[in-house]
Amino acid sequence: MDRRQFVSQLDDALDVAAYADVDASPNGLQVGSEDGTVERVAFAVDAANATIEAAIEWNADMLVTHHGIIWGSLDRVTGRAHDRIAPLIENEVGLYVAHLPLDGHPNLGNAARLADRLELGNRAPFGEHGPKHVGQRGVLPEPMALEELATELSTELPTGERGVQVLDHGPEMVSNVAIVTGSGADWLGEATAAEADVLLTGEGKQKVYHESREAGVNVILAGHYATETGGVQALQSLAEEWGMTTTYIEHPTGL
Fold it and tell me: 177 in helix, strand or coil?
């Protein structure tokens, strides 16, 4: 496929333009030229030395990640930025990044994929971020014990040895679930207002312990990496539908 066409199709599928004013990450093609073709596409959560090296070794034409290299503006290409960007350019591997567009997408997004795993019904957008949403909320098929839900997530997600952390400050049986993947503890207030029984996110902050206790809302911390694998894997499936040869590069952080 023409590289320009591949980038354009991803931009359109993820509605990248709608997040231009709310995301610190420049979404879309971050590194590389739009000229040429794309046949082999690698997917990973993070654009780091390890995943970039793996993509190059696999002879990828493009690496698609959730977390990119550039955040905000890039003043100079030195140090870590240079060490990540230089191999991509030298080996003619493009880097495509989808940050908030992949968090908030109603079907392909990280929260959407977790909602699929849990078979949530009555779904609605959740996690207001300016004019956009970066999560979803919904209702479990049947009420479930909080401990059972945490065990299911620990089994199905790449949580590593750390497993899932639970702040059991709400009802023992849960039904209404709010999801913001990654670092989503700041949306506890919105979860409380939505009468959620549990906020499912990746990692927490010190203050969320007391806030969840005072609000009477459970919090499950299933790992930043673990909760954000679903979106890039959904994009991988989409690329395969477009005729691409793909691979998924696993590199769990345990965080």
Answer: strand
